[in-house]
């Protein structure tokens, strides 16, 4: 087909549930992208924490190319070597004994929630079905996961939400304590809230949730879809907190850009998912697993993980410099290379406007709500790219109209 699609064609052919920026990227390498007109951009967005090794990393390209010439898909009527290699690597690298593969973080979280309820049902009875989550959390877009997520805007207009789900205040252990009881089957939490504003969990809060789960025979689920696979400087964030969950979900950076999700758990919990209780047509796809294995092995190298903290310090240093110039941020927070810069009252709700202004300067970044700039770049982004990108952000903020 001799046709070059444009941004306007998105409005013509695709549902209006997204509102993408004006440019259409067509090529990427490392931490840089190029659009249809050949304009170059520095990428601080990372595909929303997905492109943890940047664009077209050689190890991932090689894994995809090699596997693409061997075997693409089987379904779970059979197993395959890439899935088994990846599962073994994840088990040997974490607390887990067993792994379930899916296509996305939302599906991994759906599986985790179903597993928690099935475990409680089989071990304690049908009454034990309460799920405790937290306001401003985000766990996916399936009906179950979006209901467990603590943001009403994502459930409005879709009818009654599933029952047995309650929400406490993030980083407030007493709030959680008021909700957890003998009928609780699971406590689900992001060690670092992403969509809710890039807020790191307080160590005492997460440790307290572990104690509550143990006290009431509930399962602790860590949603590490956004903060896992090197993002915080550990392979998974729970390792840095010293708090071990019963179930962990992973996606985004797990595939380095290729769609894949995973749910990790222990033998004790996994045994209730007998044949036929859950499944996924594409879960454990050989292509996805081959790329994910290359991503995990590369990200898990000590030099890559150690480099996260070094790069995060440069980001914070540059954000503080911008703040000193414009007095624009009320808070700069995060963990590793998942960083949020919250605008103060003077720059209230300038997040979307900043994204558009940054594009004009040659920079791609994210927002987390209307008031927080979110940075989730490649874990191996060069220092020069960080500083150049921050100069572009400086210029973009300088163009914002605060009078409208």
What does this structure look like?
This is Acetylornithine aminotransferase. Its EC number is 2.6.1.11. Homodimer. The chain has 404 residues and is of the alpha/beta class. The protein has two domains: 147 residues, Aspartate Aminotransferase, domain 1 (Alpha-Beta Complex), CATH 3.90.1150.10; 229 residues, Type I PLP-dependent aspartate aminotransferase-like (Major domain) (Aspartate Aminotransferase, domain 2, 3-Layer(aba) Sandwich). Helix content is 38%, strand content 18%. The strands form four sheets. Strands 4-12-11-10-7-5-6 form a seven-stranded mixed beta sheet, with helices on both faces. Strands 1-2-3-15 form a four-stranded mixed beta sheet. Helix 3 runs antiparallel to helix 11, helix 4 runs parallel beside helix 11 and helix 13 packs across helix 14. The longest helix has 25 residues. The model has no long low-confidence stretch (mean pLDDT 96).
Number of discrete helical segments:
14
CATH superfamily of the largest domain: Type I PLP-dependent aspartate aminotransferase-like (Major domain)
- Percent in strands: 15-25%
Uncertain residue segments:
none
Q: Kindly provide the name of the CATH class of the largest domain.
A: Alpha Beta
Helix content: 25-40%
Q: How many structural domains can be distinguished in the coordinates? A: 2
Q: Indicate the CATH topology of the largest domain.
A: Aspartate Aminotransferase, domain 2
Largest sheet: 7 strands, mixed
Mean pLDDT: 96
Q: Outline, from the CA principal axes?
A: globular
Number of strands: 17
Q: Which architecture of the largest domain would the CATH scheme give at its second level?
A: 3-Layer(aba) Sandwich
* Neighbour order of strands in the largest sheet: 4-12-11-10-7-5-6
The termini sit apart by: 44 Å
């Amino acid at each position: 087909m001799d046709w070059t699609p444009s941004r306007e064609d998105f409005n013509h052919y695709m549902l209006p549930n997204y509102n993408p920026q004006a440019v259409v990227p067509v090529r990427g390498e490392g931490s840089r992208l190029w659009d249809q007109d050949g304009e170059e951009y520095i990428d601080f967005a990372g595909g929303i924490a997905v492109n943890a090794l940047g664009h077209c990393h050689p190890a991932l390209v090689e894994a995809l190319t090699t596997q693409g010439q061997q075997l693409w898909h089987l379904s779970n009527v059979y197993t395959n070597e890439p899935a088994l290699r990846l599962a073994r690597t994840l088990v040997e690298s974490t607390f887990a004994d067993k792994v379930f593969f899916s296509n996305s973080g939302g599906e991994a979280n759906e599986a985790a929630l179903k597993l928690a309820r099935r475990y409680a049902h089989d071990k304690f009875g049908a009454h034990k079905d309460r799920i405790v989550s937290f306001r401003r959390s985000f766990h996916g877009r399936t009906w179950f996961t979006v209901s467990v997520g603590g943001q009403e805007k994502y459930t409005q207009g879709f009818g009654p939400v599933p029952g047995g789900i309650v929400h406490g205040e993030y980083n407030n252990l007493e709030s959680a304590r008021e909700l957890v009881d003998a009928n609780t089957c699971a406590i689900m939490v992001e060690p670092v809230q992403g969509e809710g504003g890039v807020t790191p969990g307080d160590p005492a809060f997460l440790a307290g949730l572990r104690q509550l789960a143990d006290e009431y025979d509930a399962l602790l689920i860590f949603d590490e879809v956004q903060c896992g696979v090197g993002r915080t400087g550990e392979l998974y964030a729970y390792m840095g907190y010293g708090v071990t969950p019963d179930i962990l979900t992973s996606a985004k950076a797990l595939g380095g850009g290729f769609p894949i999700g995973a749910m990790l758990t222990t033998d004790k919990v996994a045994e209730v998912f007998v044949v036929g209780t859950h499944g996924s047509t594409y879960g454990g796809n050989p292509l996805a697993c081959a790329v994910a294995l290359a991503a995990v092995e590369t990200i898990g190298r000590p030099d890559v993980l150690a480099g996260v903290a070094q790069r995060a310090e440069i980001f914070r240093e540059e954000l503080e410099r911008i703040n000193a110039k414009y007095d624009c941020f009320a808070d700069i927070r995060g963990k590793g290379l998942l960083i949020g810069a919250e605008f103060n009252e003077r720059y209230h709700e300038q997040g979307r406007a900043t994204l558009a202004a940054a594009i004009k300067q040659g920079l791609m970044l994210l927002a987390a709500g209307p008031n927080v700039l979110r940075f989730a770049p490649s874990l191996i982004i060069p220092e020069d790219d960080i500083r150049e990108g921050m100069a572009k952000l400086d210029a973009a903020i300088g163009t914002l109209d605060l009078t409208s």
